[in-house]
Amino acid sequence: MQTRSEITLADGVRLHVTVSGPADAPVTVVLLHGWCLDRRIWHDQVAALGGMGRKAPRVIAYDTRGHGRSGHTGLGGATLAQLGDDLAEVLRQFAPTGPVVLAGHSMGGMTIMEYAHRHPEEFTARVAGLLLVSTTAEGHTHTRYGLPARVAALLRAGETFGAGLLARSGAWSPHRMVLPALRPAVQWLLFGEDCADAALKVALGGIGRASLRSIGGFRASVGAQQRLDTLATIADVPATVLVGDRDRLTPTACAESIAQALPGARLEILEGAGHMLPLERPEQVSSALVTIVRRVARSAKRERRAVRETVTRCREAA
Question: Which Pfam families does this entry report, sorted A to Z (predicted)?
Fold first, then answer.
């Protein structure tokens, strides 16, 4: 059963949050979507986690500020730093205790890194597993849009200029009316060899819900973030890194550098897939997530058993 809730952050922005799974589950999974998308990209993964039966985790998914059903953000709040703080608040309110698995797609993965950077003690105490999907720790360092370097540089310059204009265009979504015309461009940019109509519809729906301020406002922060050093400080957290070999936004070099910073991470490159792995390759993403959850649950069970045995010995000694 899924319940919907809302929280209001310190700056007044309202976040739309959904929670499913048993309240007393030993593990909580938090799902973070990408830029100009919403929590619906995780539909298949939520279903897979719910299908774990008695071992199902508690699952939290929310729409990032300025996206989906969440409230609009001010321009000053359209930064990865703010998203890292937002994640910290979601955890405090919805998952204050117990081990947590964080799964982030694209900007969602960057949000996780920012949370680790800005709240290192909380991250160390709470996070027991990571799934990083189609994301980067190096801003736009490796982004070429699948084009020659010189053409990509020109495109990025135009994109950056346009993003600045959009960021100041306000919290409205006039582009929603021209989404059908954008369909071919979105499919080319976000998807690989195969693109189901339902998957493209979810992606277009997220873009249509995002405001012009959100589309343009986050661009500078996303392009500038550098968090490989942060990843090196959390290298002992079990992690899986997934990327498609046709990803035009966060190509394989992005995933490879993340995996190098997290030596214990499992890197998987999916042939023929683009940027939207939760929608393009739902079974493989779900399998990776379920595997992490099971690993964390086993570890948590061992820790609880060790605590009980220690308590028993102390009582017997007394």
Answer: Abhydrolase_6
